[in-house]
């Protein structure tokens, strides 16, 4: 039930780093934090770094998909990066990578999304 959320704005891109476990205990808290950060700042794009995310269940998947729809409605792009094998498997089985790109790290995500010069 331990999750840490670190956020950094880089121009119009919100970089979110999740550490710990994103599950039914933490999903609502993360959803509220992300929505507030996206609305408060001029966030057009979102990069979700999962380098230190050890576990995620379907509630976490719902958080990611919901933020994807939110960003997409704003005309923005969203990507995930630094995904551990156990989380990668859940994202792959869900079909997430058919709608959202995955990158090796934050730098390649920003370059690949072509959102930061």
How does this model look, in words?
This protein has 4 helices and 5 strands, in the order ββαβαβαβα. Helix 1 packs parallel to helix 2 (58-73). The chain starts with a strand and ends with a helix. It has a 5-stranded mixed sheet with strand order 1-2-3-4-5. The longest helix is centred in the middle third of the chain and has 16 residues, at 58-73. 41% of the residues lie in helices and 31% in strands. The radius of gyration is 13 Å and the shape is globular.
CATH class: Alpha Beta
The rough form would be described as globular
Number of strands: 5
Tell me the domain tally: 1
Reported by name, the CATH topology is Transcription Regulator spoIIAA
How many helices? Answer: 4
- What proportion of the residues is helical, as a percent range? 40-55%
N-to-C SSE string, H for helix and E for strand: EEHEHEHEH
Distance between the termini: 38 Å
The rounded Rg comes to: 13 Å
Unreliable spans are none
CATH architecture: 2-Layer Sandwich
Q: Mean pLDDT across all residues, rounded?
A: 93
Sheet with the most strands: spatial strand order: 1-2-3-4-5
**How much of the polypeptide forms β-strand, as a percent range?**
25-35%
Largest sheet: 5 strands, mixed
Sheet/helix structural class:
alpha/beta
CATH superfamily: STAS domain
């Amino acid at each position: 039930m331990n999750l840490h959320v670190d956020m950094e704005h880089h121009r119009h891109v919100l970089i979110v780093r999740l550490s710990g476990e994103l599950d039914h205990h933490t999903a609502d808290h993360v959803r509220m934090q992300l929505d507030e950060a996206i609305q408060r700042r001029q966030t057009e794009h979102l990069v979700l770094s999962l380098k230190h995310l050890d576990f995620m269940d379907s509630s976490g998947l719902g958080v990611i998909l919901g933020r994807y729809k939110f960003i997409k409605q704003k005309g923005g792009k969203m990507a995930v990066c630094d995904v551990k094998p156990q989380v990668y498997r859940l994202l792959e089985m869900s079909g997430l990578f058919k709608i959202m790109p995955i990158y090796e790290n934050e730098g390649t995500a920003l370059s690949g999304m072509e959102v930061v010069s």
